[in-house]
Fold this protein.
Amino acid sequence: MAKQGNKKNKAFSWDYAPALEGISHLNIKEKYDLFIDGKFVKPSSCKYFDTINPATEERISQIAHGSEIDVDKAVKAARRAYVNVWSKTSPSERAKYIYRIARLMQERARELAVIETLDSGKVITESRDIDIPLACNHFFYYAGWADKLEYAFPNRKVESLGVVGQITPWNFPLLMAAWKIAPALAAGNTVVLKPAETTSLTALKLAEIIKDSGLPNGVVNIITGYGDTGAAIVNHKDINKIAFTGSTQVGKIIQKSIAGTDKRVTLELGGKSANIILDDAPIDQAVEGIVNGIFFNQGHVCSAGSRLFVQEGVADIVINKLKRRMDKLIIGDPLDKNTDVGAINSKEQLKTINDYIKIGKDQGAKIHQSSSKAPKKGYYCVPTIFTDVAQSNRIVQEEIFGPVLTVQTFRTIDEVIQKANNSPYGLAAGIWSDKGSRVFNLSSKLKAGVIWANTYNKFDPTSPFGGYKESGFGREGGLHGLRAYVNLK
Amino acid sequence: MKRLEVLKTYKIYIGGKFPRTESGRYYTPLNKKGEQLASVSQSSRKDVRNAVVAARKAFGGWSERAAFNRGQILYRIAEILEGRKLQFIEELIFQGSSKSNAEKEVNVSIDRFIYYAGWCDKYSQILGSVNPVASSHFNFSVPEATGVVGVITDQTSSLIGLVSLVAPIIAGGNTCIVLASESKPLCAITFAEVLNSSDVPDGVVNILTGSQEEMIEPLTTHMDVNAMSYSGISKNFEKQLKESSALNLKRVSIYSKDWIKSDNQDLYMIADFQEIKTTWHPIENIGGSSSFY
């Protein structure tokens, strides 16, 4: 097992003994089929692709590559289930099915957490304490809405949409599947979901749970595959709504390709969120917030605080403390409970990140990287910050989706509002200050869907999430998340 | 001797001013009797861009106005409209409406502004929420104006189609660029005069006349327009609108309603042009836990 820790000051620091999560209890099949109409079925093409553990570059399992034909089968099953069963199931019974799924997920939480870590590269403490509990809680939260929808939309009659097509990303695989499936079912829709190709396993484990829950066949269908599989869902004629989480580039393609149809769409896309440290901020907490903002989940977070703005009076102290803190981050085996920064999700993503690091250097920014060493095998990226960056630098403007932070300084509130809002994105923002009136001034002027004041990267099933501008439209979570899955008459 | 009537030159409305189109072009729509309505400005791509600049400039101030104040201004629009009722009725009749329909259209238009005026300081309370998160944080969601909205009004009506789309958009703190009905453009410009004398800040509503087909492209592809509102039946327009909105992920709302009906107005039309912003703040759990209350 690769050893991690800060080697530089070895004489003064103790290394952590490895604290590995066991994997012997896992139940992973060698090959996974598509989940259609309540059964696991072979893909029509008979094609499978490998899913890789990014921390070891070893194959975990093989995943079916669904084609247009498979998508069509799944949509037909979902339509049948909608017409014959699900739309006739009483709302309170719908709620009970969703509660049951939540409970079964809780019972298998440990297995789900370890599989999530193996498949995605995220650290086990995160999958165990954040991803999986939040995914379970999301089902719990929306279950209760199923028979209370008329309270959510005053003065209107609430109707389900029909069959919804959902496409999820690889950064929070099971959590994003929960964000999509739970509100869709609560509102009375049936689902065809495609997980991201590098992280299909927990969605397939969820399919097993759904099967065990006794949910009527066809209400949820899981079709694994690549972009072509996703496109087949987007373009299928009998789908009423598309919900997509992923890149802004693909989001635009989806919006364009459904033009001229009556399909509804919600998009949760990229970001380049500002994390703003005012000169009266609680500095140590702010530094933790910066680290959590950009290095949480290896920076694979659409709402990552990837643009740091520090007020000039405290810039030196904040940046110095940040660098010291970065040196203490442990990079390595995601299964080790001591690890802070796990593996980059895929070889392709690691290349993207490294390309951006090169672009940053080429455009004249000053780089600083954590002195912690990453394991030789596996896809890893050392936490990186760039200072001396200009607003126009590509690393400031474009989403990197990795542990790479740009640092800018500012003098006045006007200046930082202007710089923070100068982005096509508008997903999230962080504000650090001990003064409430300053926080509320900034929070009302920043064009972002989520504002974290004196905190960062917090999520909850009751809390709506989603962006302004090119970060997409629609909200997931909370009462507002229901709107995406209902028709108001 | 019969007095010679003074005819009005119909201009366009950008940033609180009444220019003719920069292109110098005009067109002459006819009414059912074949009479020329006027030499109406045929606005250009450049006029669209100027209107977007004016709307963006007005957005910060308008969206940050107190909700109560926005309500007062919408009420003022209704007041001024009421005072100029006869002029609108006359224009509607000239453009082909019967007297009773014209009267009804103006009355509903006035009442629609009263309706949305009342919503200005209430929709946040219905559309917002305090969210009981499981961690130790205070968390709340509020609606905020989406930004600059492009409005393509119904071809079939001169006034009520425009009023029905614009009122919920500006009630919600957005600013807009309106493409008026091509065949019945007169009331749109007279309505601009109402806006101009109703304390509505310059640039909040900008109104262009001309060929919708020509203007839809520069408006829907403009990268500084955040949303589109369309009322009409053209499937081609609808497709083009959605396709070009994908360039910068504009929010698109399409309505097909009989606006003259008094119940075709509601909160959810305001909600269509709102973003939900959720704010988190930690709650420090030190002290207080053992106190009696």
